[in-house]
Amino acid sequence: MTTENMTDPAERVSITIPRSVLAKFDQLLVQRGFSNRSQAIAEILNREIIEATAHGEDQVMAGTITLFYSTRRNTLQSTLSKIQRQHIAEVISSLHVQLEDDHIMEVLVVQGPAPKLRSIANELITCKGVKTGKLNLSSTIIPPLHQK
Prior knowledge:
The protein is of the alpha+beta class. It has two domains: 16-54; 60-138, ACT-like. Chain A, domain 2 (Alpha-Beta Plaits). It has five helices and four strands. The chain has helices at residues 3-7, 19-32, 37-54, 76-86, 114-125; strands spanning 60-70, 91-98, 103-113, 130-138. The chain has a four-stranded antiparallel sheet with strand order 2-3-1-4. A hairpin with a 4-residue loop joins strand 2 and strand 3 (103-113). The model has no long low-confidence stretch (mean pLDDT 86).
């Protein structure tokens, strides 16, 4: 049982959905390893609430920006590093993983106002040579690293 479950009482609800959707949902439960439908529905609802919140106000959020790119583009890595340095207050850390065929997966840990994080992700993802990228956000944030 998580701390959240102990402090936030559960509420029983009833929903009506088509059997075909329920069957596919049950398959998803098994594939993803959920213990029960309630756990899966709570996770899906939390994800959607976070997504909706991220598109609204300037709430501070934490998350990751994942990029996949090739090292064959000579200046791409320096361009990506320059963008990260320009946003040093939001980019907390990065991890580079060497993949096959001169490709790299880079994962950035970020925190800041959601619109700013979306802007940084878009700036990185749209660099010429980045194959794909994605921003994932959470409403749970990293504690302050330094006290003033």
